Q: What sequence folds into this?
């Protein structure tokens, strides 16, 4: 089958190969940071599916991340579910939450959509606090170390080991990248772009725009939840912070910095922002001021994000 | 045989009724021109047929199938394509992507796209270019080509030659003539009298949301008073 965008496919393959090689040159601490970046990049890629490709700006994506965190984490903590099963449960829960939420919130658009998604996310956040005897609330719950290993097809995976965590995160990141490549660079990708540009015109061509937006919303929410489930199981901790407003904003920032509507933009945005915050927070307690100034600079000189601007000015295939 | 039948179509903008029982019929391979002064209801008639403005009364059939009340997204799938006034392209998408969206509507194959590009050969050199960067004439051609890619049985055109250079107008007219020869029924809203007289088979004159007269093109050519009476133009 002919690829829709062979140059982008090659670039994605090169990026994955480079990420695989990275673990052999980075220090233990940086491998841990890279693992976190890969998991959060999946979250940002999910967000990008909705905001970048379909043009819907959500302020409540932490809700889906939290659905994954709590479904996977609580089932492992209370029922002792094996990690693969807990992970599948986390992904399934976020799929269900995004489907039900999508059917409700997609009746709104633009600012109303932002407000409604924010309200749903705040309800989720407050629910995690209200039932703190189960969820652990702000304090959170730590998953027992003994429950953080599993065997899959004869391979023993120990999630307390950095290399295992990194390679598992890389495998899921690669699968997400491949899935999104197929979804966004093919026929359906054109429909998302058409809805982003003008839903009315898309409908006039005979397409059910509600269905298209629902598909984008559910894919986006499910990927966010998958990222959440992975984060909880990898690092063995669940807490209300994962349902907080700040996390929704992080997904937005990662996407904006990297380039909305570009496949690799969220990875770049997540990497740049995470490393920047990590480094700056070690230098000054006022690191958020510096981060803010850099965001303004990106907005001024690269308004479509780093890769988005490169796409607009030089490389149109970088989408 | 009648391809599309519109009977007693009524439509409102809020509380104001703008269409008062519009009736039209179109045969396959026929070009029906809809003429009238500004505000007569021509564009509203097209929008009501397409379902983007929900009619409050009347009936629309396509080859005997009742389309009345179908959601707007179902109308193109049934076989009616619309080129609205002002082109309405996806300006961030390339020419190729715009055409591909047309093909996806009814699952037409790429031969349909080739036929559309044969009508507008200038687009062949622009396939990778963003639609928003095309000239006005090229955008009009792309809008028509995209509608042709739907594989329509009826094509609604709303002032496709508006603001175009004479060479582009000639290309659009030639495309309409070719569609007619291929058996597509065309409902054309047009202000340019010479275009109407050249490509039209019949002319329906609209006034205040009603069809006032419907004449074969030969009668319109023979009686310039018709154009003066309903459109305020002399040939």
A:
């Amino acid at each position: 089958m002919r690829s829709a965008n062979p140059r982008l496919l090659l670039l994605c393959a090169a990026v994955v190969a480079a990420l695989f090689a990275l673990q052999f040159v980075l220090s233990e601490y940086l491998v841990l940071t890279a693992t976190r970046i890969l998991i959060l990049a999946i979250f940002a890629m999910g967000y990008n599916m909705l905001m970048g490709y379909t043009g819907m700006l959500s302020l409540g994506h932490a809700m889906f991340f939290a659905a994954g965190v709590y479904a996977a984490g609580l089932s492992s903590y209370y029922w002792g579910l094996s990690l693969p099963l807990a992970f599948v449960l986390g992904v399934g829960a976020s799929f269900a939450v995004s489907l039900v939420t999508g059917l409700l919130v997609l009746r709104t658009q633009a600012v109303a959509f932002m407000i409604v998604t924010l309200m749903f996310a705040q309800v989720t956040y407050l629910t995690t606090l209200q039932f703190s005897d189960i969820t652990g609330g702000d304090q959170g719950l730590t998953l027992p170390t003994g429950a953080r290993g599993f065997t899959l097809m004869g391979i023993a995976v120990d999630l307390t080991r950095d290399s295992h965590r990194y390679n598992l995160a890389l495998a899921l990141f690669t699968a997400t990248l491949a899935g999104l490549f197929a979804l966004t660079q093919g026929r359906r990708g054109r429909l998302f772009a058409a809805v982003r540009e003008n839903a009315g015109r898309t409908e006039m061509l005979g397409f059910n725009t509600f269905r298209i937006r629902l598909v984008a919303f559910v894919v986006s929410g499910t990927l966010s939840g998958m990222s959440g489930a992975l984060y909880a199981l990898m690092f063995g901790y669940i807490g209300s912070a994962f349902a907080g407003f700040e996390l929704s904003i992080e997904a937005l920032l990662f996407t904006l910095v990297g380039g909305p509507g570009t496949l690799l933009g969220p990875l770049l945005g997540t990497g740049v922002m995470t490393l920047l915050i990590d480094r700056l927070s070690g230098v000054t307690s006022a690191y958020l001021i510096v981060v803010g100034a850099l965001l303004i600079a990106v907005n001024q000189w690269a308004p479509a994000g780093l890769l988005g601007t490169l796409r607009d000015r030089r490389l149109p295939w970088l989408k | 045989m009648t391809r599309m039948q519109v009977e007693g179509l009524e439509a409102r903008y809020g509380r104001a009724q703008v269409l008062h029982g519009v009736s039209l019929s179109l045969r396959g391979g026929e070009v029906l021109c809809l003429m009238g002064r500004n505000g007569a209801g021509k564009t509203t008639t097209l929008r009501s047929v397409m379902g983007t403005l929900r009619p409050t009364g009347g009936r629309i059939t396509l080859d005997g199938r009742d389309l009345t009340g179908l959601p707007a997204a179902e109308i193109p799938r049934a076989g009616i394509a619309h080129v609205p006034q002002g082109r309405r392209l996806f300006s961030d998408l390339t020419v190729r992507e715009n055409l591909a969206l047309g093909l996806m509507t009814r699952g037409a194959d790429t031969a349909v796209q080739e036929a559309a590009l044969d009508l507008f050969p200038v687009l062949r050199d622009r396939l990778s270019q963003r639609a928003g960067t095309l000239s006005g004439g090229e955008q009009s051609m792309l809008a028509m080509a995209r509608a042709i890619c739907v594989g329509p049985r009826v094509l609604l055109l709303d002032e496709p030659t508006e603001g175009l250079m004479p060479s582009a107008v000639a290309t659009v007219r030639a495309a309409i003539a070719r569609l007619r020869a291929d058996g597509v029924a065309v409902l054309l809203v047009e202000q340019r009298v010479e275009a109407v007289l050249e490509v039209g088979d019949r002319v329906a004159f609209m006034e205040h949301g009603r069809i006032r007269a419907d004449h074969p093109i030969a009668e319109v050519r023979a009686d310039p008073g018709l154009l003066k009476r309903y459109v305020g133009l002399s040939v």
